[in-house]
């Protein structure tokens, strides 16, 4: 990690450490992050990229920060910039891909957005427009962690919009998938810290429970799952930086990251609650803030099964000669 990224990490750690635990949107935290210029970190004026976004999203995941960082920047912000839409100074935006009737389900943070960047099918292609929140019907919903995941309805017939290629819609999904994987690495690391702290200080029969082999195995499996998911996700970020989102190697890297993160989440959540015992299930203990998010995030922007299928399909399609170039990100032989 470069010195600049180290500085960003330390800055974000201080900011998120001061944030309180909330189940809904935290306007004070958002205001602080906005003042620091990280709510639109990858915009043209900010000049940041995926390495900086990776640090930000992992730090946000490690604090269970209730703010739409990925949605405002990497999704809605990028989509609006790609289509050269006006309204770039809108404080909070999220993105929604609606169906032919103008409906989208489980849209993150829609009720808290000032505007939605909406994509809808139009003939053989798609169109995109930015719609003020007042022009969108929002029915509140939530994921397992209590984060807003709302149903939205718009009337595309009243929108002019800008025509976009289908590849933009696919990139939007890949961006969301990678963003969730990065947040999951932060949450998984925090779970590991919580479990290690508990098992090394909690005593049973006169010694820390970390001294018992069964507990050691639980913690070791958490650490191994966390390390694998983190390595796969970091590799996906590197592949994006090297190849962009149009390359087969990038799709494979993101699918691998999401597959690893999804399976890791199952192991991490199960073992953490086993190691923590009853206290880990209480509302007063912070563990559930991270385990619930891991379980919720692994199913967003594609299920674990869909990413497993993407990995195996790409590997089978590459064949024996093309498999290593695909895994290594060097492209087709």
Number of helices: 9
Biggest sheet descriptor: 4 strands, mixed
DSSP, total strands: 9
Mean pLDDT across every amino acid position: 93
Task: Please explain how this structure is put together.
With 333 residues, the chain is α+β, with helices and mostly antiparallel strands. It is 55% helix and 13% strand. It has nine helices and nine strands. It has helices spanning 3-17, 27-36, 50-62, 69-82, 166-201, 213-243, 248-276, 287-297, 304-328, and strands at residues 93-97, 103-108, 115-122, 125-132, 137-139, 149-153, 162-164, 203-204, 207-208. It has a four-stranded mixed sheet with strand order 1-3-4-7. Strand 8 (203-204) and strand 9 form a beta hairpin. Helix 4 (69-82) runs antiparallel to helix 5 (166-201) and helix 5 runs parallel beside helix 7. The chain is globular and about 70 Å long. The two termini are 31 Å apart. The model has no long low-confidence stretch (mean pLDDT 93).
Please name the defining characteristics of this protein.
3-stranded antiparallel β-sheet; 333 residues; 4-stranded mixed β-sheet
């Amino acid at each position: 990690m470069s010195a600049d990224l180290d500085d960003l990490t330390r800055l974000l750690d201080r900011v998120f450490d001061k944030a309180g635990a909330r189940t809904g949107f935290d306007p004070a935290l958002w205001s602080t992050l906005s003042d620091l210029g990280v709510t639109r970190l990858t915009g043209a004026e900010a000049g940041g990229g995926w390495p900086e976004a990776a640090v930000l999203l992992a730090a946000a995941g490690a604090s269970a920060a209730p703010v739409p960082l990925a949605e405002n920047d990497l999704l809605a912000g990028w989509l609006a910039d790609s289509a050269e839409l006006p309204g770039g100074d809108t404080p909070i935006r999220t993105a929604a891909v609606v169906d032919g009737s103008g409906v989208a389900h489980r849209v993150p943070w829609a009720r808290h957005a000032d505007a939605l960047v909406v994509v809808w099918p139009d003939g053989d292609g798609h169109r995109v427009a930015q719609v003020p929140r007042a022009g969108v019907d929002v029915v509140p919903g939530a994921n397992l962690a209590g984060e807003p995941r709302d149903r939205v309805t718009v009337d595309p017939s009243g929108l002019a919009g800008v025509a976009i290629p289908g590849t933009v819609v696919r990139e939007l999904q890949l961006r969301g998938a990678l963003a969730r994987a990065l947040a999951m690495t932060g949450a998984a690391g925090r779970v590991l810290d919580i479990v290690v702290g508990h098992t090394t200080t909690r005593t049973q029969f006169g010694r820390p429970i970390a001294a018992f082999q069964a507990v050691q195995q639980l913690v070791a499996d958490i650490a191994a799952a966390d390390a694998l998911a983190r390595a796969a996700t970091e590799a996906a970020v590197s592949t994006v930086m090297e190849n962009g989102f149009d390359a087969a190697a990038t799709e494979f890297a993101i699918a691998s990251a999401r597959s690893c993160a999804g399976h890791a989440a199952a192991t991490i959540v199960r073992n953490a609650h086993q190691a923590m015992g009853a206290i880990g299930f209480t509302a007063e203990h912070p563990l559930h803030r991270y385990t619930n998010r891991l379980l919720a995030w692994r199913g967003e922007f594609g299920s674990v099964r869909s990413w497993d299928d993407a990995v195996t399909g790409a590997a089978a399609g590459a064949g024996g000669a093309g498999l290593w170039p695909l895994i290594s990100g060097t492209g087709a032989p």
